[in-house]
Amino acid sequence: MRQIHNDALSIKERVGKGAKDHLVKKLNADFSAGGCGTIYRASSGDTDVILKTMMKTPSRSMEPVARKEYDFGMKLKHPNLVRMRGSFDTATDHCLVMDLVEGCNLYDYLQKNSYGHMAESRVKKMFRGIAKGNFYPSTNLYRPNSPGLEHSHRQGIAHLDIKPENIMVGKDDHLTLIDFGLAAETLGLCHQFSGSADYASPEVWRNIPFEPACSDVWSLGIVLHILLTGCLPFNPTEVPDMRVQPDLYWPEDIDVSDDAKELVRWMLELKPMARPTMKEVLNHRWLKRTLSMIMKRRWSISGKTDLLN
Question: Can you give the residue ranges of the Protein kinase domain (predicted)?
């Protein structure tokens, strides 16, 4: 891993602790309740950062875990993904340094708002996470014309623990995906049966090798349903025994468009290969329609302006 000096880092406060060595046994499937390590808010000069520490073990079992998260983090450069800055080792810990993402996680955000649903137009903006190649001098990055997860998959990396707790809500509803501690390469089948029970795909529950990108799409589909309705689409304890396509729960008092429902159903297809890729999610008419209407409106306004001139 990249060796950087930790002398310039000053720890301010502990902000979280992953579920190191903690497994939840449920319906004959093991799920890690979160990533490994202890999380601190620290400062490096005038800049606040996140410091994640993973305790060294006699078996050195945490070293490849830290190295993998570091390597993936350095590969992913996108405004909707937490950015890795460096790493170092102390006598007792493997340490990762990454950008501090301001705001609160989506779970806390929903809890503060009594788990109420959001306006569909707002959900669409948050979910799309899209911008037109704008340059950000502070990060020296161009914003790709795709959401963070699609970019991650194109780079060959699946998150494998998508849930509201791992999505930060920032200024202007900007979403950032954090905690790649359970991430895996998308090339080939995955044998890592970890994640969070309410969001894990059926194939993960069944403890069989699976396509990691397809599993991410399932988890994101559940998050989308929660944003649209404020509730889960079905009882998660039923997922391990699902053998037919589940009927999704849509509250009668919440108006959700047919296009949005269709996209959620597609993302929650029981068969992994029947689910859309993230590129196909982006191209779904629910996300494309508003953009198309905006472009037509801009063309119309521009045309009228030219006529007036």
Answer: 25-287
- Give the contacts of 13 (CB within 8 A, at least 6 positions apart): 40, 41
Edge-to-edge strand order for the sheet containing 93-99? 9-17, 38-44, 47-55, 93-99, 84-89
Tell me if 75 sits within 8 A of 36, measured CB to CB. Answer: no
> Which among 238, 246, 250, 249 has a CA at the least distance from the CA of 266?
246
Which of the following is catalytic: 99, 161, 179, 216?
A: 161
List the domain boundaries for the chain.
9-99, 104-289
User: Cα separation of 285 and 199, whole Å?
Assistant: 25
pLDDT digits (tens, 9 = 90+) for 270-299: 999 999 999 999 889 998 865 444 444 444
Q: What is the mean pLDDT of residues 63-71?
A: 92
Span 201-210, pLDDT tens digits: 999 998 889 9
Assign domain 9-99 to its CATH architecture: 2-Layer Sandwich (3.30)
Q: What is the CATH number of domain 104-289?
A: 1.10.510.10
The SS3 call for residue 147 is coil
Q: Rounded to whole angstroms, what are the CA distances from 166 to 5, 91, 159, 226? A: 28, 29, 10, 14
- Is 253 catalytic? The answer is no
Q: How far apart are CA 92 and CA 63, in angstroms?
A: 12
